[in-house]
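Hi! If you just cloned this repository, the fastest way to understand the data is to look at a raw example. We've pasted two of them here, unedited. The first protein comes first, obviously.
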Amino acid sequence: QVQLVESGGGLVQAGGSLRLSCEASGRTFSTYAMGWFRQAPGKEREFVAAIRWRGGDTHYSDSVKDRFTISRDNARDTVYLQMNRVKPGDTAVYYCAAGWRFATVQGMGNLNTYDYWGQGTQVTVSS
């Protein structure tokens, strides 16, 4: 089992920056990939960014590429999402996820790759 706790959400103006954190606990040594997803009201949960826990390979959705950066600190069992030049369309609840199974880089963008989910943190971008 892996427990995930997100933090760092809040209200930010368009064009600003925010950094989300996700701290993992439990059987983290089994983690293959960690990802960030988001869900806006009335919309389906969508992929944002992912990273292989050991290799560090990353994958981004087209909507956030070149604005957001995912990184991890293996010693702290923590993954981060640095959000720059945010837009009102980035407003959503952001969820951290951990997966134990192998996935290709592209596959890390699939919801079904992940076995554990955090409770989410709200990000609101004002215009």
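Ok, and the second one:
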Amino acid sequence: QVQLVESGGGLAQAGGSLRLSCAASGRTFSIDAMAWFRRAPGKEREFVARISWSHGGTTYADSAKGRFTISRDNAKNTVDLQMNSLKPEDTALYYCAADRTQIYSDYLRRLPGTYDYWGQGTQVTVSS
């Protein structure tokens, strides 16, 4: 099992920045990649960004490109999401996720069902 704990959420103004962090523990050697998803009120969970645990390759949702940066620290077993130029529509509960299987399909990498482990989420609220 892998446990994931998010931190760093909070309130920001539009145009501001927040940095989320996800700490993994347990059988972290089994992780192939980690990702961030979010769920806004009344909407389904959506993909934000993903990073390969081994080689650091990244994938971003169109809404995150150019504004968000995902990074990892293998020594600390953490994955961060730096969010800049925040918009009110970024308001959501942000979840960290991890998967154990190499996924080559860009489509599958963006699906919540691909991931084996989830954190509890951290709230991000962006005011206009």
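That's it. A detail worth noticing about the second one: Residues 32 and 102 are 6 Å apart (CA to CA).
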